Amino acid sequence: MSLLPVTLYGDKILRKKVDKVSDIDNETIELIANMFETMRNANGIGLAANQVGANKSIFVVDISRVEEYENIKPTVFINPVIEKYSDEKIIFEEGCLSIPDIHGEVERPESVVIKYYDTDLKEQTIEANKLFARVIQHEFDHLQGVLFTDLVDEELKKKFKKPLQKIKKRKIEVSYPVSETIDYQLL
Ligand code: ZN
After folding, report:
1. Catalytic residue from among 67, 83, 139, 173
2. Which uninterrupted H or E stretch holds 134?
3. Owning domain of residue 30
């Protein structure tokens, strides 16, 4: 396993709607293992494939180290589709490994039903609530080219403008490996 550089705000692949996965080859298995390692190394709880430069509809989530979520097993979601959003919404602060040191409140549905494929390409459907649903929606958005900073209120958007430009120009210090150019693409 190896750590992959994390793409940063401004990187083109973060704005791309990624391609579906058609088969799980060794390359994809290795990518998934490396995504888990990269996420944990950066103390993240979710990571989408385009955050490591891969144009594939895959994200991983591991919230098992968060209190009250120890029973949620680390999960890989392949070709995910969110089938149902709850009417009830909650506001919660989010951050993102591709947008270091920026945090802001985002309103999202409290729970979702998500269909996806596992690494045996077996179809799975689960209902996720609270933090689990939050991370799933954040990562699912990544695969559509959407970032949480797109979803904050106008005031925060203004406040984020300068810090986001700094990230784009890489005038920041990050404690984990990051991509060197905005054109970085792995697979
Ligand atoms: Zn993110």
Report:
1. 139
2. helix 130-143
3. 12-168
